[in-house]
Amino acid sequence: MKDCKNHLWMADLGDGRYKNPILYGDYSDPDAIRVGDDFYMISSSFTFIPGIPVLHSKDLVNWELINYVVREIPFPEYNQPNHGSGTWAPAIRYHDGMFYVYVGLPDEGVFMSCTKDPYGEWSPLHCVRAGKGWIDTCPFWDDDGKAYLVHAFANSRCGIKNRLDICEMTPDGKSLLDEGVMVYDGLQDHPTLEGPKLYKRNGFYYILAPAGGVKPGWQVAFRSRNILGPYEDRIVLHQGNTEINGPHQGGYVELENGEGWFVHFQDVYEYGRIVHLQPVIWKQDWPFMGQEQNGDGIGEPVAVWKKPNVGRKYPVCCPATSDEFDKPELGLQWSWQANPRKEWYSLTENPGFLRLYSMPNDAERENLLWYAPNLLTQLIQTRCFEATAKIIPHFEQAGDKALLAITGLDYGFISVQYEGTPGYFTVECIQGKVTNKEHAGEANETVLRRIMVPSSEAVWLKICMDENGEYTLGFSFDGDEFIDMGITLKAKWGAWTGAKLAVACLNTENVQGEGFCDFEYFHVE
Questions:
Q1: CB–CB of 277/61 below 8 Å?
Q2: pLDDT of 71-114, one tens digit each?
Q3: Please, are residues 404 and 511 in contact by the beta-carbon 8 Å criterion?
Q4: Which of 94, 373, 449, 476 is 20 to 30 Å from 315 by CA-CA measure?
Q5: What is the Rg, in whole angstroms, of the alpha carbon atoms belonging to the chain?
Q6: Cα–Cα distance between 350 and 446 in angstroms, integer?
């Protein structure tokens, strides 16, 4: 594990304590496991590919992005942006020498991928059950060799949102043996019941699941001596008098020394769903998460706590953000807005640069960012930052454009475009508004400011975001003196995601040509 060179968010306080969140990135619906001395965490990625990020840690506080589970979603709908669909709330487990990830695609079914090496290649998505509306899937292998799957339902797809069901699986985890048994109906006490994770401890089966909705909800523990119930319930973590809404959906990890820890997310609106770590103790075979702060007997999230006792100190690290584009493959921080294609980009045509080709939209829609499959994105990793991209335009025809953006349901970007006038570029500040966020959706874009400038060999584009999610856009011809476009925009969350940083090269006239743009670097500070 390498030291982090660019500490955008530091959870490790360096004195044996940590602060929450442990990750200020949109790692939605996290799940985590321990395998020996190593911890692995995954999260939702919805329609962004590569998908289902895999993170590694030695101490549950310092995390490094090491891989992705999904390289392609095997349905044609995902060759274009399919907002709000894709990989929802996956679960990771280690069984009999193999790592397994199960995930529900709300429109397609339940899928599984596996590997012996989480750093290596994961198997293509295998369909465990085709169908609509089964989500938040988690596998479980019992002591007798039998395998099970617990899952929730997507109300938007099947009209159910309060139930948890358990199915029996084949021991190899590749198919289900039945349609399942409802083990809990939360209509009365725990509405909007989702995200279940199944465990066994001290002779009890436990389902840990959030209820009540993402922002106003709470975390529940369900307990039974029989895997199919009946289950008794107890609220084990809630917001209380803290500022941590939710707290919502995660995974339980137990150390060799018996310490218990729970990772979960908090929804911070335009910044997405960031990851927290709570201590867990057990009282009369019930988990107690966080810290008692208001006298109601239910745990509340901690702000600062002693780090997990893993036996030694490990270096501070964090997921990558900046990129010098000096490797033959894209950095792990990047994901496309749809299934990627090789003709969109190259890192070898001009070594040391990311070459993005000026692409039309194959769906023959207006070539807006919301519709662009070749939009290259990364998670925002802190509240306040500057993102700068140095670009070398090689435009050939009218409509060729390169840009730096903040995505979301309200999005904004600064672009350099060739409009057919030799010797000149147009620099534009553009705002996009999404009017339909589902699947292909609908959006419109408005030019807020346009400046005609002499064409230049290199242009620097910059976005500056403050701690309130407001950002400005600027450009430069020397990398030192920037011209502010005089526009302030407010970031907004996307379809089940936070806002993201993004770059792209496209043709607004939807013409395929020879134009491209070389990105020399992308820096986040």
A1: yes
A2: 999 999 999 999 999 999 999 999 999 999 999 999 999 999 99
A3: no
A4: 94
A5: 23
A6: 34
164-174 residue pLDDT tens: 999 999 999 99
Which runs of E-coded beta strand occur in 437-492? 442-454, 459-465, 470-476, 483-490
CA separation for the pair 340, 326 (Å, rounded):
20
Query: Tokens in use for 21?
Result: 């969140």
CA 212 to chain centre: 22
Mean pLDDT of 445-474: 97
Give Dmax (Cα) for the chain: 77
The answer to whether residues 50 and 68 touch, using CB atoms and an 8 Å cutoff, is yes
Token pair for 217: 């909800």
- Fill in the DSSP letter of residue 279: E
What are the beta bridge partners of residue 400? 507
**What length does the chain have?**
525
3-state helix, strand, coil in the chain (%, to 5): 5, 50, 50
User: Looking at residue 270, what DSSP letter applies?
Assistant: G
Tokens of 311: 């036996």
* Residues with active-site annotation: 29, 194
What residue type is 392 in one-letter code? I
| Closest to 106 measured CA to CA, from 90, 89, 124, 88 | 88
pLDDT confidence tier of residue 27, bands split at 50, 70 and 90: very high
**How many CB atoms are located within 10 Å of the residue 438 CB?**
13
Q: In 129-178, which ranges are continuous DSSP H helix?
A: 155-158
